[in-house]
Amino acid sequence: MAKDKILIDDFIKLDLRVGRVLEAKEVEDSRKMLELTVDIGAEQRKIFAGIKKSYAPVDLIGKNVVVIANLLPREMKFGTSDGMVLATSHDDEVIIINPEKDVTPGAKVS
């Protein structure tokens, strides 16, 4: 079901970047979350992602992901998440959105 339509100006506000996962670990008190350290080119960010049921931390190292880089940091009970990794779900599995080819971290997604 589609949500309300937005103007192109609203979409342009998003800073979508390719990031490369440098580190990934399980969050102790969470059934869903992994803590990722993601290289987005000019900096590294700590991002919490609810992908634990579909990905083992070791399988994420070196993987390219798409990140919303200009999302305000979000305080969570286990730390601050500084961005969001884009993902979808299919057949009760979470699937990370990633570029088809190897892309330099920090590349803008448009």
Q: How far from one another are the termini?
A: 23 Å
Which outline best applies?
Answer: globular
Looking at how many chains there are and whether they match, the oligomeric state comes to single chain
CATH C-level category: Mainly Beta
Largest sheet: 5 strands, antiparallel
Task: Please give the share of residues in helix.
Answer: under 10%
What is the count of structural domains? 1
Describe the protein in words.
The protein has 110 residues and is mostly beta strands. It has a single domain, classed as Nucleic acid-binding proteins (OB fold (Dihydrolipoamide Acetyltransferase, E2P)), CATH 2.40.50. 8% of the residues lie in helices and 40% in strands. The protein has helices at 8-12, 57-60, and strands spanning 16-26, 34-39, 44-49, 64-68, 74-76, 79-81, 84-85, 87-90, 93-96. The strands form three sheets. Strands 3-2-1-4-7 form a five-stranded antiparallel β-sheet. The longest helix is centred in the N-terminal third of the chain and has 5 residues, at 8-12. It is globular, with a radius of gyration of 14 Å.
Short description:
This protein has 110 residues and is mainly beta. It has helices spanning 8-12, 57-60; strands at 16-26, 34-39, 44-49, 64-68, 74-76, 79-81, 84-85, 87-90, 93-96.
Record the SSE blueprint.
Elements: H1 8-12, E1 16-26, E2 34-39, E3 44-49, H2 57-60, E4 64-68, E5 74-76, E6 79-81, E7 84-85, E8 87-90, E9 93-96
Antiparallel strand pairs: 1-2, 1-4, 2-3, 4-7, 5-6, 8-9
